[in-house]
Batch of 2 targets.
Target 1
Amino acid sequence: MTTTDTTTLNATPPIKSAGSVAHHEGTPVALFQRVQQQFERAAEMLDLAPEVRKILARPACEISVTFPVRMDDGRFETFTGYRVQHNNALGPFKGGIRYHPDVSIDEVRALAAWMTTKCALVDIPFGGAKGGVQFDPSELSRPELERLTRRFIYALGNNIGPDYDVPAPDVGTDARTMAWIVDTYAATLPPQDRHRALAVVTGKPVSAGGSVGREKATGQGVVDLIALWAKDNNVSLSDLSYTVQGFGKVGFWAAHTLNKLGATLIAVEDITGAVRSTEGLNADALAEHVRQTGGVSGFPGAEAISHTEFFEVTADVFIPAAMENQVTAETAGLLNVRLVAEGANGPTTPEGDAVLRERGIEVLPDILCNAGGVIVSYFEWVQNRGGASWDAAEIDRRLQEILASAYQRVMSVSETKGVDRRTAAYAVALSRLEQVYEERGIFP
Ligand code: GLU
């Protein structure tokens, strides 16, 4: 592997590993098994139809491709990429593509299943999928990343498509990656069909058919949800203090948006370490530091703290916006916050969840809290297919509306059934899926 390329096209920090943290405790939980347990808990409560349980227990399709990539020094390396298509009862398969050293088929399966529930919960007409390639993007140059992306998409061939399976950015990928995907996919179509290629992915650069507001959408959605929670709890956003784990796309945009609303960012942790300032950290200056140095560590004016100290910081809200399995029984026991707003997918282990419940720490579960990204992806797909262009105010308004209604549904099930919000969120999603299977029946 060769040089590190930190070139970015936009104002956000480099994608590489800035959104990740390195702490994994014990043996990694089999992630897909965890999703199945979450499904089961909600399915029991709902008395969900057995056939729907069975269908959702396994992904509909799993694709694994191995392909060669020419590296800058002329050598060839082979890479293995996955696309797991979990369910498409509600619409085309939908979900991001992840580039990260920890990518595995188990992780991609879990992430695909979470996309199915996320889209069903917020009621957008998409199913769930996820893709990934196991490697560290910070170790590849930009031309290598481009060649890898193009070969991966070429290898997937017709397994993706605007009406069939629509990828998007995730950890380690961004708008630039999506632009390469459109271009590669288009090249596989006959010339007269190439205009259709635009809607094959979402999260494209705005200048290449993307939607305004897509880049900040996941972070914006996290903030919209925190605002709904704050309103219900009589907390003013200008008095709110918070901490963020992971300062990639989601962590940065959540912090940037919350700071604009007057909230105080007390501490941030990423793969390079953790920093704290009781006076508050400036999210934009921190992003600039990350762009220049590759991580939050060494940010001028902030105090360096340990992983344990980071979790112990007293604040109103903790936003995990990095990788899975970060809120464990141990770290959940350290937290001094009222709310965990899950920007990442799967940041809390079942043991961590139990400790949060015992300690009365509230949770906005991932499939609700980070759904802003896929919702604005849906807006992008609709605009591409209709040749339309919506402005930022319209995107923000529609996003807020969809999230507020999903939040209300989750709160109402949680209250009426007396269950935690994660189970309530799964229950809303599973009922939606059960409804469509009931109405359409199962072929033949
Ligand atoms: N990767 C994001 C997620 O986990 C966005 C997916 C999408 O926009 O399709 O929700």
Target 2
Amino acid sequence: MPVRIVETMPFDDQRPGTSGLRKKVAVFRQKHYLENFVQSIFDSIAAPPGSALVLGGDGRYYNRDAIRIIVGMAAANGFSRVIVGMGGILSTPAASLLIRKRGAFGGIILSASHNPGGPEGDFGIKYNSGNGGPAPEKLTEAIFAKSRSISQYRILDGVTIDPDKIGETILGNMVVEVIDPVSDYAELMESLFDFELMRNLLQGDFSICFDAMHAVTGPYAREILENRLGAKPGSVVNAIPLADFGGGHPDPNLTYAEDLVKVMYGGNSPDFGAASDGDGDRNMILGRHFFVTPSDSLAVIAANAHLVPGYREGLSGVARSMPTSGAVDRVAKSLNIPLFETPTGWKFFGNLMDAGRVTLCGEESFGTGSSHVREKDGLWAVLFWLNLIAAKRMSVEAILKEHWKQFGRNFYSRHDYENLPLEAGKDVIETVRARFPDLAGSILGKYRVDFCDDFSYLDPIDGSLSVGQGLRIIFTDGSRIVYRLSGTGTEGATLRIYLESFEMDSARHGLDAQDALLDLISISREISRLEEKTGRVTPTVIT
Ligand code: G1P
Ligand code: ZN
């Protein structure tokens, strides 16, 4: 099969964000668009001849076409093996695992995470390095630079592999290995959690509902929860990955996972509910009529990790992104282990894990994970909770109440204003920044401002400095307001306002978070002159 060298022209919009390159499907379908970006990856990583590449995606529209193109390009660029999930399917955490387990040079994951799919939806592509984690910024910038000057790409003509058949095919000088996307991952989960104990729980009268949201975790959850752990058939719903996610928005939160929320808050609801996102790295945990914030979930997991076999030896440290609540900080303090506060995005955790400094990490945006892979991992978090419930023999709600009693409760909420004009988004941020000098020391209702800053992070491992990571207004009682613009949206600007207050008094732990945060919410809108700058008074999504 001949290698074809194709002349091309650069596109100027191929700068990968924190989670790879995400664009509308129509953008990716432009002639040479995907090929240019893939060649820019290959040129930047300069994999030595004989390297292996892991390849798979969340099954969204254009996944299959992209797999075929990338396989042909890998063969023409000197890879000796491409490991592809059957049907082109690999969840993000499973891809991370395979890169590590198979000693691959890296991997390409096709996903736009929780963004809607289908011909009118989004597509995405990201490169993960040999440690299994997202490409560091140095590399994504190099890829972007290449994409600006590219003039040709290499591809093997006439690639016809059958991604639905497990086995090996020779393609030029390369082997294409189609594997079961689930089995390695399921095996790893069995090594971390007490499956015996969880089987007893799930085969008894404890009922669960896992909503795969028509996305990638369906096959993983069916195999692990129903087949291996014996949850009742039908416990996993929306389990078949669809190219358009059934027209939904596969983001596990109270707004987009509304079907699951209805089940969990309805009559005769299951004891435990959970959902994951498009590519399987996010998770939402619910009890009967009860929602666990991701920040609390991280804190509870850290405080109880000794109950889970894979973590019995203890935690080397924990990390959270800056906007994530400080609930886990107090757990770290009581365990006497280090706590790291990093910028938003998973890649900052990777360095800490590679250096053995942290075992657990998480973000307020429904992402939790550990050093078992280098991505956040939705199903892993669900299994962690099930293992805890089985070990403690307590309901989700009782576990949280006990936790708050011991550590206090961080009321927490994130208000998103999606699809703002780009200028309006920037304007809000600059308005807040301009008020910093006046705010310091001032009194706003019952709050006194301690300090304000634009969060920056000096990576303790590689010494790199990340600036401009979100505006913080910190009050003397530890309450906070944080403003930042999303780096992952594909339409206009998304403004995120994060609100947090701390309460030690257990008589007040039962309050609704929105009620407890009422004053801070109005202060946050006043400081940013939100309505004047954006015309908005209500967030599009509250989590
Ligand atoms: C969002 C989340 C962030 C997460 C990222 C990728 O990024 O807020 O925590 O790491 O998606 O899943 P944002 O859109 O806020 O930049
Ligand atoms: Zn995701």
